[in-house]
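FIELD: query
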Amino acid sequence: MMVDLLAGHTAMTVRQAADRMPIERDHLYVIPPGTYLSVANGALHLSHPQTRHGARLLFDFLLHSLAEFMVL
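FIELD: result
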């Protein structure tokens, strides 16, 4: 549903992220519910939270993986 909502407001291609999906220019990726998103080797990687309790810092998880990828 989020993909359809966002697609009506941008000229970019909007897709739901899938594990090992290559990153493409001018694309907007939506994180599926209940998953973490990270980036490695030019691809998106999905994982499930290790714990069900406490704060889930999804955006921090993504930014940390991007920072590691950019250093390599």
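FIELD: remark
The chain is about 30% helix and 25% strand.
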